[in-house]
Amino acid sequence: MNELDTLVDEAKVAFSKAGTPADLENVKAQYLGKSGRITELMKGMAQLSVEEKKTRGAAVNVAKQAVEAALNARRQALADAELDIQLKAEALDVTLPGRRRQAGGLHPVSRTMERIEQIFGSMGFDVADGPEIESDWYSFTSLNNPPNHPARSMQDTFYVDMKGDDGIPYNLRPHTSPMQVRYAHQHIKKHADLVKAGGTMPEIRVIAPGRTYRVDSDATHSPMFHQCEGLWLGENVSFKDLKVVFTDFCRTFFESDDLVLRFRPSFFPFTEPSAEIDIQFQSGPLAGRWLEVAGSGQVHPQVVRNMGLDPERHIGFAFGMGPDRLTMLRYGVNDLRLFFDGDIRFLRQFQ
Ligand code: DAH
Fold first, then answer.
1. How far is the CA of 343 from the centre of ligand 1 (A)?
2. Which residues pair with 279 in a beta bridge?
3. Which one of 57, 122, 284, 299 is separated from 309 by 20 to 30 angstroms, measured CA to CA?
């Protein structure tokens, strides 16, 4: 092996020992730098004859190219190794199971509300919404329940630190019944032009679902609960119509004809006569028990007057039911508070 081949071999070994790009550049200097060994060989040719320069020059050039090739190969190898390390460090484990997107769902009471709206909607009832902070007049007086009337204690509620025009504080509505008078006012206004032009005002047929409040808290009462008011006022709407409509509603809601209704005489200031509506399933886990689901009655003439209508011409029925109660019965839940605790393990069962 001649001296040039040995030099090339030494360079290759030295390059392969360099573990980092910086090391490699230092080693390169020893061969190809200003006073590197290859460079010195080139310089040394100055003294040679023209003929010798040709052969020697060609040989040195071959050696120089071999060293440069070895250098470049090592540079590439080091760069590849570095990239490899980086790729490994940043690797994504694509075999990890993905995080599933969790679909939300409706609260069981919201489902009940939607169901109520859908069923009454199919019977031609409008759906109305109203304020939860209500005036004393709408919550009580307009419903034939004046200040100091003992019937007010049936609906003790919370009061807001703000007084209405009558000097009485606003309340958190204890029932959805104020919507009877509110909606009637809206309805009359809406059809005022028609009536002025000699037309007849369409019947009032509406439900008003929403949140209600009372000073009450136990397994079947919550300070915040839900109600759904119903009102049908026309020329000749009777208690018979209430029975038909409400029976139809219950059987559709519970998807069962195997249930009977009882209209039990009761008292509400805003209806005369008044009745509590009880239902009884004829089969299933709740069979045989009477379960109260609503208050109802023929709208009291004074309430019709407060609506701005003539009780001689506009008669009909109203009812107020408890969607929370209906939800408990439908799903067989016996503690109302579970619905409002927000425990996802409980709520998930209804999806
Ligand atoms: N507002 C009554 C309550 O909360 C329920 C009720 C009874 C509503 C009779 C009515 C009705 O519309 O006619 O106890």
1. 31
2. 261, 291
3. 122
177 lines ligand 1 (CB under 6 A): yes
DSSP 8-class letter at 197 = T
Is residue 172 within 8 A of residue 133, CB to CB? The reply is yes
Closest CA to 247 of 187, 180, 319, 193: 319
Among 120, 268, 300, which is best to mutate for testing ligand 1, by the most ligand atoms less than 8 A from CB? 268
Which residue, 10, 9, 25, 15, is CA-closest to 74?
Answer: 15
| Residue pLDDT, tens place only, 182-228 | 999 999 999 999 999 999 999 999 999 999 999 988 888 889 999 99
Cis peptide before 174 (omega within 30 of 0): no
C-alpha 189 – ligand 1 centre gap (Å): 25
**Whole-structure pTM value:** 0.73
The two three-digit tokens of residue 216, written as one number:
């009450």
Q: Which CATH class is domain 108-350?
A: alpha beta
Q: Where are the alpha helices (DSSP H) in 197-291?
A: 239-253
Pairing of strands 126-127, 204-213: parallel
Sheet containing 159-163: give its strands across. Answer: 133-134, 169-172, 159-163
Q: Decide: 342 and 348 in contact? Cβ < 8 Å.
A: no
Tens-place pLDDT, residues 8-61? 999 999 999 999 999 999 999 999 989 899 998 888 888 888 888 888 888 899
> Mutation test of ligand 1: which of 296, 306, 317 has the most ligand atoms closer than 8 Å to its C-beta?
296
First to last CA, the chain: 85
The pair of structure tokens assigned to 293 is 């689901």
